[in-house]
Amino acid sequence: MQTSWIPFVPPSASTLSGKVDALYFYLSGVTVFFTLLIGGVLIFFVIKYRRRSPYEIPRPIAGSHKLETLWSVIPFIIAMSMFAWGAQLYFQNSRPPQNAIEIYVVGKQWMWKIQHTTGQREINELHVPVGRRVKLIMTTEDVIHDFFIPAFRIKADVVPGRYTTQWFEATKPGTYHLFCAEYCGMNHSGMIGQVVVMEPTDFDNWLSGNTNQQSPAVVGQQLYQTLGCVSCHGASGEGGRGPALGGVFGKQVFLNNGQTIKADEAYIRESIVNPQAKLVNGFGPIMPTFQGQISEEQLVQILAFIKSLQAQGSQAEAPAASAASTVPPPARAASPETSNR
Amino acid sequence: MKAMESFVAPTPARINYLNATYGLKSWLLTKDHKRIALLYLGSISFFFFIGGLYAMFIRLELLTPQGDLLQSTTYNKVFTQHGIIMVFFFLIPSIPATLGNFLVPMMIGAKDLAFPRINLLSWYIYMLGGIVTIYALLAGGIDTGWTFYTPFSTTFSNSYVIAAGLGIFINGFSSILTGLNFIVTIHTMRAPGMTWFRMPLFIWSHYATSLVMILGTPVIAITILLLAFERLAHIGIFDPAAGGDPVLFQHLFWFYSHPAVYIMVLPGMGVVSELIANFSRKNIFGYSFVAFSSLAIAVFGFLVWGHHLFVAGQSVYAGMIFSFLSFAVAIPSAIKVFNWTATLYKASISYDTPMLYALGFIGLFTIGGMTGLFLASLAVDVHLSDTYFIVAHFHYIMVGGTLLAYLGGLHYWWPKITGRMYPEGWARFSALIIFVGFNLTFLPQFVLGYLGMPRRYHVYPAEFQVLHVLSTAGASILGFGLLIPLVYLVWSMRYGKIAAANPWNLPGLEWQTSSPPLTENFELTPIVTWEAYEFAPPEETEVVGKFRDKRVEEV
User: Fold this and answer.
1) Any idea what DSSP says for residue B454?
2) What is this structure's pTM?
3) Chain A, 132-161: which have a CB under 8 Å from a chain B CB?
4) Measuring CA to CA, which residue among B305, B515, B538 is closest to residue B419?
5) Which of A105, A110, A170, A310 lies 20 to 30 Å from B57 when distance is taken between CA atoms?
6) Higher model confidence: residue B4 or residue A157?
7) Which residues 267-306 in chain B show a CB within 8 A of chain A?
């Protein structure tokens, strides 16, 4: 593991980590200053005004609203500076960039299963390139876990039934800790691994070095066949008794209750495990639930397949699809992905 | 010495609340708030001892990076049970149920609490909750963490979740009854002349605490009930497969458990206000600011629970609102610290043990409070959540704050409670040991946290070992320091110097009666004609700044 030149700070290896450190140093500085100030004044008073005779009675002093206002307002201003800085950094980082590499993460007692869009699977290891934005789309098979990479200063819970996301851009090749930070049962402290940050060329080599694995979209297509999705949604997602899937990802969908919803990861997942929850306008409640018959990893693979349909046949299926269930994307850039985090 | 001279300290009464009646029955069926306080004192000391043993095992296990002392399943139970016992059976009842029970009536000049039988009932409920929890520990223990997060607690844990939950559920009612009793007592039973703004700040802080107890505790009861239904009957409220939401549990849990932090620390602030004023013979600088800041903390404390969920999948905007409110709630605490410090200006400061604890409290509470700002700060909290930084932060508040205040208060009122003095030399020595041991235990954990060491790990990367060794060394010093008072306080009950009625020479009402007090506290109901902490005539008051502090006078 890399050690940092300051023993009080973990290795700094993402575009975010330096910014978080700067705020941390500001907070530490203010803390040390006020602790020394109060401690110093306290010790000074305690020595200077020590009781010199058992009979001495000091003059009472009335409080001063002026002083009290002063020491309410100054801490408030300092606190607001901390709030603004922390919130701004958090807000900036809360939106995953559009052009990021997507990597799927599934937590499970007690391991991290990771799958790259090109098909590489890893357990408790995450290989990523330097200088490219990486977005993690995460969920869990069982309890809540938390994907924590101290060197990147990022952390997010993975919650059953949801997809949470976080993203980073690594800046320094090396090997860093990966921890599960949310207590998850017996072997919680064994749910650790490493993040290997590589130069982009090394990363591309690494990716092409493991070619015997199929991409999640391809596996998802096979699942799409074997689970029988194909009979209602069509061989290439053109639709039929069920809504068309081609090009649906990321678009607004009309529901039969008059509302619209964005077909994001969470909605597609819900439509598979609980199909009656939000029916697409014009379709009946005929789809059986796949709850319990399909693992989170398989869900992610089907999701990857449905996402890939968008690229393949959005032109060809557009007329049929938009008539039935979708509307043209409303300026995607203006509505950044609203993920759970 | 106006205030002090105006009272003639009564001669030690032969008959007092301790020897008025004898026998086990006279204690177990007592309606005397002072005896009930002692029942609580014994019980919470017992639970503190168990919680402390668990802490010792945690620190010993973490001495090495391998899991060599405890298996993971055992370790998980040990830290869970440490948390449950310390939070629900020591910290929450600690100051209110012992010192508060003893002193709330005495400080306002009442004969007892408003509902003496309910007061006794609250102790029995506490004990029942405690016994059920002890049963859960002995039957096989619980491994969910004291936070009981779903779906681990509802579906995956094979431990005694419902038994432990039931213990906490039952115990909650004792909090509610205590809070209710205090509020009614403070409203209706103040002695003539004891206006709201003449009340000691200890009473104000207990009033604020009682509000939180009454308003907050039902929520944890509901939450535990839902948890039990979910675990037994799978009603689906926290299960996404059935349309529920596991994060809902966290909202409900922290809606109580964050205010519960204020249940734990507000009474400590009240004790420290007493100690600072009385051991420096000064009126508290800005009495009304300090009094109202307790109420402000109690109210705003209900609005900040979401800061526990910054990385739990909460919306970004909710996160920003909770972050803002969390910074706002820090201000009343800052006011208290500054006002306590200002009280010492031109004072007459004694170095008696209670004052040492009070000074230690201010220092450690300052560090605990300031490090809370790190966690309120969103981007930094993302990195620090669920690491040792959190562990260090809340121990600075809970141990550095509440425990030190409790020990300070216990020493301060010990002569009143027992009629005996504690040995001053030993007491000062152990206060120093505790302070040093505490800092050595928890300062390294701030560093561990920023380095990324997650909490609740019993096996950890070797690079963290040095800091863990320091922490364990500190913990053994702290543990040793805490054993000393246990020994000499018990010793002093029999062999300590006989205490005078008013050994510290103070104007507070509780000192204007014999030590130990009569069963009915005062021979005659006192009539209060002076302000709180009035050591010298008010006409001598020095005014700093432009405005004179205006006290509200009730006629």
Assistant:
1) B
2) 0.89
3) 142-144, 146, 148, 150-151, 153-157, 159-161
4) B515
5) A110
6) A157
7) 280-289
